[in-house]
Every structure is written in structure tokens, then in C-alpha cells.
TrEMBL record:
It comes from the Eukaryota. SUPFAM superfamilies: Acyl-CoA N-acyltransferases (Nat). This is Protein NATD1. PANTHER family: PROTEIN NATD1. Residues 35-129 form the N-acetyltransferase domain. InterPro entries: Acyl_CoA_acyltransferase, Gcn5-rel_NAT, GNAT_YJDJ. Belongs to the NATD1 family.
């Protein structure tokens, strides 16, 4: 199952892979993949291994607070990958997950709050629990 989501910054392809979902993004010539690990309740991006081959990853954590409610708790992007839109990709993947699963969210993470303000899509704002 695949479909495309377009945003101002990137275009994403969603592909269901069993318990995990992968979002592939092309941004400024970089190929980034956002993995949704439902079991561990997180989204991750592992930028290309490069010459060093290190496996640092960016992560957005969430937790369920009710049957149809989640708390988007935090995002972390390693310093070497900051400023490349990785946190925005994680945030978009999480917000799209809310839309697809018909969930509402508490937003504990300051970055995700900023992302929603900077991307005033009506569907996103309607999903936020004040």
C-alpha cells in the first residue's frame, strides 16, 4: 500500500511494512527514511551511514494516554544531523499517524508545538488536546 503526501518542504511516500511503517523522504538530495516502530512507540530517522558508519538516530517518542489519545513526548536529533529538517520529518510522520489512526494528542514536546504552529494545517490543529 503506497500513497504520496506532499508538503512545502518534502514529499513523502508511505509504505506499510508489517508492524513498522517507513516514510521515505527526498529533501535537498538526501534520502532519509522515517521508521515507525509501533511496538516501542517511536518514530526514528537514521541518516545515511556516511564514511564514519555511525548509527546515531533521531527519534520522536510518544505514549498512549487513552484509547484514542497519545502524548507526543519528545524529539531528539543528534547534533551532527541538526538543521537538515530531520525533526520536521519526524513531526510530520507523527502528525500523519494521528490523522490516519483518528487519534487526538497532547503535545509535550516544544518542537512539535512549533511544527504545528509553522504548518497551520487545519487537520493537525484539530487533533491537539489543549
Amino acid at each position: 500500500m503506497a500513497f504520496k503526501i506532499f508538503s512545502r518542504l518534502t514529499s513523502l511516500n508511505l509504505q506499510i511494512k508489517g508492524p513498522q511503517t517507513a516514510f521515505r523522504a527526498l529533501s535537498s538530495g538526501c534520502n532519509l527514511s522515517v521508521e515507525h516502530d509501533r511496538q516501542n512507540r517511536r518514530f526514528t530517522v537514521t541518516p545515511g551511514s556516511g564514511a564514519g558508519g555511525h548509527a546515531e538516530c533521531a527519534v520522536l517518542h510518544y505514549k498512549f494516554t487513552g484509547e484514542k489519545e497519545v502524548d507526543l513526548v519528545s524529539t531528539y536529533v543528534p547534533e551532527t544531523f541538526r538543521g537538515q529538517g530531520v525533526a520536521a520529518l519526524l513531526s510530520q510522520a507523527a502528525m500523519d499517524f494521528l490523522v490516519e489512526e483518528h487519534l487526538k494528542a497532547h503535545i509535550s514536546c516544544w518542537y512539535i508545538k512549533k511544527y504545528i504552529e509553522d504548518h497551520p494545517m487545519k487537520t493537525y490543529k484539530e487533533l491537539v488536546i489543549p
